[in-house]
């Protein structure tokens, strides 16, 4: 498995639902080495409980399980959550199953057996699904969600102000020094950027970033060091 893929997956959490014990044990061993947190369930009821408690980034679920199918479970989740990524595994190649699953906006539909090659392909698709969203990896286990104005660290989450969100987006996308003039024109816009306001802004902003991630280039501006 590609090293960059492994590094990216360490930023995410996963819920794996599989009723067959042998398959569940084998795949769980792989997933625990790849993801920041791995939650395991043996049926849809357990899976839904873990989903509500932990809100994982990715769900991998089997279709055919006792009492409630994986498709029924994802339909229930989709009523209130359109963003969680979903991969379905199934022994079925039946067109009806596939069409029903397609309506659930899946990352991948995997026909069993779930080999390492199939799993790798599905996980690559999962990571790539964030390419068109506004989520950025700052460092290992540090994520910036622009749409939510949120930084997620290994230990806590930080809410960003409107100015902080705009500044971080600018630093990431430009990938260079952002000058004081740019900060005044773009971040402060019509507000007055006094030296005291700038110092307080930077002081508070640094508390929400990885240590030493924001570097001051004297007399010029700021840049990210990640």
Walk me through this protein's architecture.
The protein has 226 residues and is α/β, with parallel strands linked by helices. It has 2 domains: 126 residues, Rossmann fold; 90 residues, Winged helix-like DNA-binding domain superfamily/Winged helix DNA-binding domain (Arc Repressor Mutant, subunit A), CATH 1.10.10.10. The strands form 3 sheets. A 5-stranded parallel sheet has the order 2-1-3-4-5, sandwiched between helices. A 4-stranded antiparallel sheet has the order 6-7-8-9, with no helix packed on it. Strand 7 and strand 8 form a beta hairpin. The radius of gyration is 21 Å and the shape is elongated. The model has no long low-confidence stretch (mean pLDDT 89).
Layout of strands and helices, then pairs:
Elements: H1 3-9, E1 13-17, H2 21-34, E2 37-41, H3 44-54, E3 58-62, H4 70-78, E4 85-90, H5 95-102, E5 108-111, H6 116-128, E6 135-139, E7 142-145, E8 150-152, E9 157-159, H7 162-174, E10 178-179, H8 180-188, H9 195-206, E11 214-217, E12 221-224
Parallel strand pairs: 1-2, 1-3, 3-4, 4-5
Antiparallel strand pairs: 6-7, 7-8, 8-9, 10-12, 11-12
Helix pairs in contact: 7-8
């Amino acid at each position: 498995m590609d090293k960059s893929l492994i590094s990216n997956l360490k930023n995410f959490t996963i819920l794996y639902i599989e009723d067959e014990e042998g398959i569940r044990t084998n795949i769980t061993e792989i997933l625990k080495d790849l993801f920041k947190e791995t939650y395991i369930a043996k049926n849809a009821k357990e899976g839904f409980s873990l989903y509500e408690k932990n809100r994982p980034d990715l769900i991998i679920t089997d279709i055919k399980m006792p009492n409630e199918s994986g498709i029924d479970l994802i339909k229930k989740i989709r009523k209130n959550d359109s963003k969680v990524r979903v991969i379905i595994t199934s022994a079925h190649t039946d067109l009806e199953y596939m069409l029903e699953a397609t309506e659930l906006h899946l990352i991948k539909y995997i026909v069993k057996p779930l080999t390492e090659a199939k799993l790798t392909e599905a996980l690559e698709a999962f990571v790539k699904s964030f390419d068109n969203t506004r989520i950025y990896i700052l460092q290992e286990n540090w994520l910036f969600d622009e749409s939510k104005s949120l930084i997620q660290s290994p230990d806590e989450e930080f809410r960003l102000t409107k100015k902080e969100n705009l500044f971080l987006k600018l630093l990431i996308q430009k990938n260079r020094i952002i000058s004081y003039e740019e900060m005044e024109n773009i971040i402060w816009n019509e507000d007055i950027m006094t030296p005291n306001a700038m110092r307080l802004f930077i002081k508070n902003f640094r508390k929400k970033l990885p240590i030493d991630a924001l570097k001051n280039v004297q007399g010029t501006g700021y840049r990210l060091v990640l």
